[in-house]
Design brief:
single chain, 242 residues, alpha/beta, binds fructose -6-phosphate
């Protein structure tokens, strides 16, 4: 596990984008696993800049996203489909037909989880999976629990996650209560993992993930069992780590 400490969110984002750019440059037809939320926005901005400067070509890249809210249609501004188009897909030359997310409008959880899992597996191995860390230690929407879920599944979001994410919605009542998420097994099968963490509110979860016991109570702790993880975290997120 490589840990890179940065002074700021901006520096974290630049470093993360450099790593993703190197993967795309070395393997133009790579498969990227992508995340949403505030953590990767700066990284996507930096990737867009590299594309605009002519330094990066996404035309052969395939992407699979970690998660999607159950019940939100693509046109909903809070859907992760919308987010990905807003921050990355519509701003670079990626082929939209090679970008995949769980389908939030399929309300049949078992069917959607099985469909997405089979799809991701059929596409091959994720070359680099980008992750953010939840304040409660979740990765993807794998919430703290008593076991690690292997494949894509439907998650009941924890109250703390609904609280954390209500900033994107009009009120906590508008935050969907469920989401589809890749499982821990799906994430761990990626060749490389890149975790970006910013802000003091993540400090405890980051410390627990890196130094606490490996336990499904802190889903991020499982990353210690992965052979190629890079964590890029700003000073605030690292503030509890000496
Ligand atoms: C989003 C995802 C989540 C977020 C996490 C942190 O696709 O998988 O695990 O990465 O909730 O969210 P932010 O970055 O908004 O603090």
């Amino acid at each position: 596990m490589r840990i890179i400490k940065t002074k700021s969110y901006e520096e974290m984002s630049k470093k993360a984008a450099n790593i993703i750019a190197s993967v795309v440059t070395l393997k133009p037809d790579c498969m990227l696993g992508l995340a949403t939320g505030s953590s990767p926005i700066g990284t996507y901005d930096e990737l867009v800049k590299k594309y605009e400067a002519g330094d990066l070509d996404f035309s052969e890249v395939t992407t699979v996203n970690l998660d999607e809210y159950k019940g939100l249609p693509k046109e909903n501004e809070q859907s992760y489909y919308y987010f990905m188009h807003e921050y990355l897909f519509d701003k670079v030359n990626i082929n939209p037909e090679k970008t995949y997310l769980p389908d939030g409008t399929n309300l049949n959880s078992e069917e959607e989880a099985a469909r997405y899992e089979a799809l991701v597996q059929s596409l091959g191995t994720v070359d680099l999976q980008l992750l953010g860390l939840g304040r409660n230690g979740h990765i993807g929407f794998n919430e703290p629990g008593d076991h690690f879920e292997d494949g894509t599944h439907c998650v009941d979001l924890k109250e703390s996650t609904i609280e954390a994410n209500k900033r994107f919605f009009e009120s906590a009542d508008d935050v969907p209560k469920q989401a589809y998420s890749m499982g821990i097994g799906t994430i761990m099968r990626s060749k490389k993992i890149l975790l970006v963490v910013s802000g003091e509110e993540k400090a405890q979860a980051l410390k627990d993930s890196i130094y606490g016991p490996v336990t499904p109570e802190v889903p991020g702790s499982i990353l210690r069992f992965h052979p190629d993880v890079t964590i890029i975290a700003d000073e605030a997120a690292m503030s509890l780590i000496k």
